C-alpha cells in the first residue's frame, strides 16, 4: 500500500526565477521570430513583453501568448531590444534579447563624375 500526500501551507511563496530565457537573434527580412521565456514561482507569474522599453501590443503580425512572442514576416522596423517580464505579487524578473533584422544585400553603384 502506497500513500502519497502533499500539503501546501497557505502563505507559502516561491520567489520568481527563470527556467528559460531569451537569446539575441540575427535574422533576415520576412523570417518568422519566436521567442519563449519561462519563469517559475508561487503564485504562478503573468507575462508581458516590451520593445525598447515600451509595452508591446499584440496586433497583426505580432502574437503574444503568456511567455511566448511570435512576430511573422519580420521587417527592419522590428529590430530592437525586447524584454520578457514575468511578474507576481512577490516581484518581477526580466529577460532581454536584441533582434537584429538584416535586409537583402544590394549591389552598390558608384557614380563617377568628371569635371
From TrEMBL:
Residues 37-100 form the Ig-like domain. One of its GO terms (cellular component) is axon. InterPro entries: Ig-like_dom, Ig-like_dom_sf, Ig-like_fold, Ig_I-set, Ig_sub, Ig_sub2. GO terms for molecular function: cell-cell adhesion mediator activity. It is found in: Cell membrane. PROSITE patterns: IG_LIKE. One of its GO terms (biological process) is axon guidance. Keywords: Cell adhesion, Cell membrane, Disulfide bond, Glycoprotein, Immunoglobulin domain, Lipoprotein, Membrane, Repeat, Signal. Its main location: membrane. Pfam families: I-set. Interacts with PTPRG. Belongs to the immunoglobulin superfamily. Contactin family. This is Contactin-3. It comes from Liparis tanakae (Tanaka's snailfish).
Amino acid at each position: 500500500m502506497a500513500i502519497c500526500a502533499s500539503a501546501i501551507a497557505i502563505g507559502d511563496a516561491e520567489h520568481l526565477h527563470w527556467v528559460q530565457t531569451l537569446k539575441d537573434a540575427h535574422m533576415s527580412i520576412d523570417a518568422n521570430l519566436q521567442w519563449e521565456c519561462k519563469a517559475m514561482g508561487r503564485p504562478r507569474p503573468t507575462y508581458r513583453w516590451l520593445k525598447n522599453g515600451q509595452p508591446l501590443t499584440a496586433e497583426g503580425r505580432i502574437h503574444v501568448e503568456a511567455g511566448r512572442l511570435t512576430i511573422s514576416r519580420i521587417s527592419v522596423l522590428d529590430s530592437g531590444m525586447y524584454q520578457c517580464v514575468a511578474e507576481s505579487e512577490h516581484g518581477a524578473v526580466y529577460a532581454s534579447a536584441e533582434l537584429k533584422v538584416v535586409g537583402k544585400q544590394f549591389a552598390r553603384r558608384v557614380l563617377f563624375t568628371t569635371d
